[in-house]
Specification:
The complex is a heterodimer of chains A (183) and B (474). Chain A is of the alpha/beta class. Chain A has a single domain, classed as HybD-like (Rossmann fold), CATH 3.40.50.1450. Helix content of chain A is 29%, strand content 20%. A five-stranded mixed beta sheet of chain A has the order 2-1-3-5-4. In chain A, helix 1 packs across helix 4. The two termini of chain A are 21 Å apart. By secondary structure, chain B is of the alpha+beta class. Chain B is 42% helix and 19% strand. In chain B, strands 1, 2, 3, 15 and 16 form a five-stranded mixed beta sheet that branches. In chain B, helix 8 runs antiparallel to helix 13 and helix 12 runs antiparallel to helix 13. In chain B, 59% of the residues are buried. The chains are: A alpha/beta (183), B alpha+beta (474).
Chain lengths: 183, 474
């Protein structure tokens, strides 16, 4: 396993709170936690499936409009839906791509942060700034839990994760994930 | 009563748009239009900012095309400073643009378009995507992902892994290529060649069974525009503008990019935020032109590298003077990937890429600067006007998807006329109509200067304007 934990923060850094995901990735990078790799990007794209398949665990960090004041971490599974929309992908679709194209998908979580303002600009709202600090703490806590759990058990290349049938998550603007419990 | 069919959203394109199909009294397709329905005023947002910030700002218009905006913006800044940038900087910018072409074309071919002609137009919608492609040919699908990754790696090696690197700046670039970075790129060349060859083989095989699509999907005479080098070779970053017609005649050549407005007019559709540029001398509809891979191959005489030049020769045999079918954008894209990989390999042999002389410095020496670069989807113009302090007073961005707007309308109408018979439109027919748009691989985030993504719809509209049927997907 190349990485114990892959943190992918995504969003547009020119659209104020939408850019909070990449900022969380940047803040985690600065912590230099052992075994942690970070990626900051505008949107999820298919080639990320390759590093994703090599990680033991992954956290997708995104902004969500309809979770006011709340930072939420929840487990996600590879998507049941095989529908791929435009150039961008959803975290669960990317997990499915990692599984189907590269043989395995890691354990994964979606970490959503509150967004209030998606206008042009680089300043975060107060809620997003607060969420950023809390999200970094959540990632640190997850990192600790994963390390305490010991080394990963490699899955067979052909292994597939259980599918839950839950609906696809597109957290940012349309269907933010607010309901599931933390890890 | 005539009717209108609306496809909304058009899936597997970047952004959000709508297709309207107008039916006449007899239930035949009278016309069709491709609309973009969202606008966020990016150009106005930039006014008052220093021109030197523009590469970093405009590269965030879109998560798919950041490099294209970065490079065109830096070139506009060069023009405002009125400097010739150091040769190493120019070569490094070109290398990054090649990486952008590879990654973007790979995504378009393997993820967005190939599922249709590999799995079949009539395959269930739930299978007709990259997962269906993985099931049909896992090795090829994986190779396609890795080809895109290769292009991204070139960008990352040069610009760093940070999102939207402001690596290209007015006057040059911030850093050279390291020896380690050069070796990282070099070691992936063999695989990139093999994947491109495999994709070309796949497409040529598909073409045998898709002769009808090649005749129907946007097959009509038009002009073609793009950059060419002084000797008429394929260009992607330097050079000057050329227009050719559908018989292959050059009708305007070696046009200075700064003078584009003398040759290109921009009309506005009431129903879309996407402008419709045209060749001014011929007006509309005669001045309709196409840009992007198909146009770049039609206007050039050679690719500047051997494998791609051989492919170009064979490609040109498919047309009489020019290849006029938009279905062959896919083929052109693959030839451009081959050219880009060959040019990357050649560039890596150049010791200038490791040179430390990377920036020219100057103040504002010209009140206006125009930067032009070939984005994967076509010619991209950044046109800035500044005051004496270098603050922007006017910004005009003319992007590839806009250039192709008139041709996309015509393509949708052509496909609809062939397949739509009355109000009952089965899903595979809708998919064919959408595919007509996907041939151009449009990026609507860029074309409307929005930031982020937009979703899109197909509407069937009667002669009295009544919406008879509406299909919303995605």
């Amino acid at each position: 396993m190349d990485n114990e934990l892959l943190v992918i923060g995504y969003g547009n850094t020119l659209r104020r709170d939408d850019g909070v995901g990449p900022r969380v990735a940047g803040a985690v990078e600065e912590l230099r936690l052992p075994g942690v790799r970070t990626m900051a990007c505008a949107q999820l794209t298919p080639e990320m499936a390759d590093p994703l398949s090599q990680a033991r665990a992954a956290v997708f960090v995104d902004a969500a409009l309809d979770c006011p004041g709340r930072v939420r971490m929840r487990r996600i599974d590879p998507s049941d839906s095989s529908q791929v929309l435009a150039h961008a992908a959803d975290p669960r679709i990317l997990l499915a791509l990692a599984r189907d194209a590269f043989g395995r998908a890691p354990e994964a979580w979606l970490l959503t942060l509150p967004a209030e303002d998606l206008g042009f600009g680089e300043q975060l709202s107060r809620a997003a700034r607060h969420g950023l600090r809390k999200a970094v703490r959540e990632v640190r806590a997850l990192h600790r839990r994963l390390r305490n759990r010991g080394p990963a058990c490699p899955r067979p290349a052909s292994g597939r994760l259980a599918r839950t049938g839950r609906r696809s998550t597109r957290a940012r603007r349309s269907r933010p994930a607010c309901r599931a419990p933390g890890p | 009563m005539a009717k209108r069919i609306i496809i909304d959203p058009v899936s597997r394109i970047e952004g959000h748009a709508k297709i309207s199909i107008f039916l006449d009294e007899a239930g035949h397709v009278a016309d069709a239009q491709f609309h973009v329905v969202e606008f966020r005023g990016f150009e106005r947002f930039c006014e008052g900012r220093p021109y030197s910030e523009m590469p970093g700002i405009t590269s965030r218009i879109c998560g798919i095309c950041p490099v294209s905006h970065l490079l065109a913006s830096a070139k506009a800044g060069d023009a405002i400073m009125a400097v010739a940038i150091p040769p190493a900087a120019d070569k490094l910018r070109r290398l990054m643009n090649l990486g952008q072409i590879i990654q973007s074309h790979a995504l378009s071919f393997f993820h967005l378009s190939a599922p249709d002609f590999v799995l079949g137009w009539d395959a269930p919608q739930s299978r007709r995507n990259v997962f269906g492609l993985i099931a049909a040919d896992p090795q090829l699908a994986r190779a396609g992902i890795r080809l895109r990754q290769f292009g991204q790696e070139i960008i990352e090696v040069l610009g760093g892994k940070k999102i939207h690197p402001a690596w290209a700046v007015p006057g040059g670039v911030r850093s050279a290529l390291s020896e380690e970075g050069r070796d990282r790129i070099r070691q992936r060349l063999t695989e990139a060649y093999a994947t491109t060859e495999a994709a070309l083989g796949l497409f040529m095989k598909a073409l045998e069974s898709h002769k009808q699509e090649a005749l129907i999907f946007g097959n009509f005479p038009s002009l073609f525009m793009g950059l060419v080098s002084p000797d008429g070779s394929w260009e992607h970053h330097g050079g000057k503008l050329r227009f050719t017609d559908s018989t292959g005649n050059v009708i305007a050549d070696q046009i200075e990019p700064a003078g584009y407005q003398e040759f290109i007019g921009e009309s506005v559709q009431e129903s879309s935020y996407l402008k419709s540029p045209y060749f001014r001398a011929l007006g509309i509809p005669g001045g309709m032109y196409r840009v992007g891979p198909l146009a770049r191959l039609n206007i050039c005489e050679r690719m500047g590298v051997p494998r791609a030049t051989a492919l170009l020769r064979a490609f040109k045999q498919m047309g009489r003077g020019a290849v006029t079918s938009s279905f062959l954008y896919h083929h052109a894209r693959l030839i451009e990937i081959m050219a880009a990989v060959e040019h990357v390999e050649r560039a890596l042999e150049d010791p200038d890429l490791l040179d430390g002389d990377l920036r020219a410095d100057a103040g504002v020496n010209s009140p206006r600067g125009v930067g032009v670069s070939e984005a994967p989807r076509g010619t991209l113009f950044h046109d800035y006007t500044v005051d004496g302090a270098g603050l922007l007073t006017k910004v005009n961005l003319v992007v590839a998807t806009g250039h192709n707007n008139l041709a996309m309308n015509r393509t949708v109408a052509q496909i609809a006329r062939h397949y739509v018979q009355g109000e009952d439109i089965p899903e595979p027919v809708l998919n064919r109509i959408e595919h007509g748009i996907r041939c151009y691989d449009p990026c609507l985030s860029c074309s409307t200067h929005a930031a982020g993504q937009m979703p899109m719809r197909i509407q069937l509209i009667g002669p009295g304007g009544d919406v008879r049927r509406e299909v919303v997907r995605g």
